[in-house]
């Protein structure tokens, strides 16, 4: 088992979030975290459902993940909570991928130290 699978994912919700949405969001985040080599220190998901009928995308999902001290945030909005969670999970994957590539890129740019 990957150590990142054991990280507790805290959840919170505002408004009338559909039943089972929190479990779906946790599942999608855990799936994204399986591919992270660095230790995940914490993860938090917030789901919100607007009661205002004038809002175009009433469902919102936000994730904040601490990957070895680097904070990764992603959000998604949609007409349904399922759609918002899917968009948030996709963005989490992109942000995690960028974080890994940014670290590699910085490491490759370092100039070797010359000792005289």
Plain-language structure description:
It is a single chain. By secondary structure, the protein is of the alpha+beta class. It has a single domain, classed as Ribosome hibernation promotion factor-like (Double Stranded RNA Binding Domain), CATH 3.30.160. 36% of the residues lie in helices and 29% in strands. The protein has two helices and four strands, in the order βαβββα. The protein has helices at 21-33, 81-109, and strands spanning 9-14, 40-49, 59-67, 70-78. The protein has a four-stranded mixed β-sheet. Strand 3 and strand 4 form a beta hairpin. Helix 1 (21-33) packs parallel to helix 2. The longest helix has 29 residues, at 81-109. The N and C termini lie far apart (47 Å). The model has no long low-confidence stretch (mean pLDDT 87).
| CATH-defined topology | Double Stranded RNA Binding Domain
Number of helices: 2
Radius of gyration from the alpha-carbon trace, in angstroms: 17 Å
Low-confidence stretches: none
Q: Can you tell me the CATH superfamily? A: Ribosome hibernation promotion factor-like
- Percent range for helical residues? 25-40%
Span between termini: 47 Å
Q: What is the N-to-C succession of helices and strands?
A: EHEEEH
Any idea what the CATH architecture is?
2-Layer Sandwich
What composes the largest sheet?
Answer: 4 strands, mixed
The strands making up the biggest β-sheet line up spatially as 1-2-3-4
Please identify the top-level CATH class: Alpha Beta
Number of strands: 4
**What global shape is seen?**
elongated
State the domain count. 1
